[in-house]
Amino acid sequence: MQRDWNPESYLAFSDLRLRPALDLLCAVPDIPQGDIVDLGCGAGNIGAALAARFPGRRLIGLDRSTAMLETAGKALAYDRIEQADITTWTPARRPALIYSNAVLHWLPEHGQLLPRLLGELVPGGVLAVQMPRQQDSPAQRILREVAAELFPERFDWSGWQAPVAAPAEYASLLDPVGALALWETEYFQRLEPSPEGHPVRLFSQSTAARPMLEKMTEQEAIAYLVACDGALEQAYPTRADGSVFYPFRRIFFTLRKAS
Fold it and tell me: Using CA atoms, how far apart are residues 127 and 50, in angstroms rounded to an integer?
């Protein structure tokens, strides 16, 4: 299966993915002078809103995915596009805001990563983060369990750990190092019907299912997705019109570096 991100598949649910991004942006407090970094900018769907909120600032879109950066560049919202690995990235000059929507849950060692990112800011700068905290939902359990049932030699979740911790753990980690505002929201998303499969599977296929699909051939992936459709229908029965309400939990915080 394709290893890079698929912007077209990701943007099929752009309205639902944009809402938490905008909610995070609205919560960013005033910041000092300096650049804005959209860390893990993806297809760039928040770039225009960042530029409008902070006019006159240099806006940098940074991502690891070549395909996503190509799409982000077409939005013309960014002054600069950079390809980099967040785990080793260091800015050429310290920004005033590092804004990261729905990307850091893909990365490990938050206990080291988040304080390091805060340290890259100018004094008084802000780190703003949103991450899905959906790993214990029926949908994501089904994605993991079906993969293990079909391909047990490839998928063993016995040592698996959730990528995003509980809010209290982030509070304990981050409150000592900066001025912290932290909250959690559960969105009740209406997913429209589709002849291509269960709405929750289609929503998850380009994100939560990627680690499984990357280890499958095309034919294996087809069998896997069909099996997921059946299991998801049991957990999230479609309504009369084929739509589904899908609860989706996300954690947010803003963290200001000391001046």
Answer: 14
